Amino acid sequence: MTLDEFAAVLSAHPDTALQLVLPDGSFVPAHFHVTEVGRVQKDFVDCGGTVRRSTSCVLQVWVANDVAHRLDTTKLAKIIHKGVELFETTAIPLEVEYDHGVISQYPVQEAEASQSGIILHLGTKHTTCLAQDRCGIKLDVLSSCSTSDCC
Questions:
Q1: How does DSSP assign 55-99, residue by residue?
Q2: CB pairs under 8 A, 24+ apart, for 81-88?
Q3: Strand order in the sheet with 18-21
Q4: Model pTM above 0.85
Q5: Segment 68-113, tens digit of pLDDT
Q6: Cys-Cys with 136: which of 120, 142, 146, 150 at CB 3.0–4.6 Å?
């Protein structure tokens, strides 16, 4: 889901509760806060020598001991609006950063409107070789590289 798609969901469902579902099906505690809205840009070179860039909007989620706290769609829309000037475009992937023993980033896969509110389904991220054609890696065989200029 992109930032602009998520903003449209927030606008279409004002004053609605938000819930976050982790990839394992568990919920982030309902009293979560969104403490940062950030544009995260990663410039890197892959093992095949191609320079790449990825950019995403990351919502940092934090859980405190104020168990009565609730963040609704209208308040989150206001928080995001304050950060919009950071983004050259809002057509970028949306991710949630959450500390659940370790800090992890989860791509937002979808926003589901339900009777209990908007449920954000968080997905998983995986590493991969981005130069598989140069490394001689076939999709089913990722155990070793076959050329010397690969990872």
A1: EEEEEEEEE-S-TT---BHHHHHHHHHHHGGG-S-S-SBEEEEEE
A2: 82/37, 83/37, 83/38, 83/39, 86/37, 86/38, 86/39, 87/3, 87/39, 87/57
A3: 18-21, 117-122, 103-114, 94-99, 51-63, 32-45
A4: yes
A5: 999 999 999 999 999 989 999 999 999 999 999 999 999 999 999 9
A6: 146
Provide CB contacts within 8 A for 101, sequence distance 6+. Answer: none
Q: Which of 109, 115, 93 is nearest to 42 (CA)?
A: 93
Distance in angstroms between the alpha carbons of the first and the last residue of the chain: 31
Tell me the pLDDT tens digit for each residue of 39-80.
999 999 999 999 999 999 999 999 999 999 999 999 999 999
132-141: long-range pairs with CB below 8 Å, 24+: 133/48, 134/47, 134/48, 134/49, 135/47, 135/48
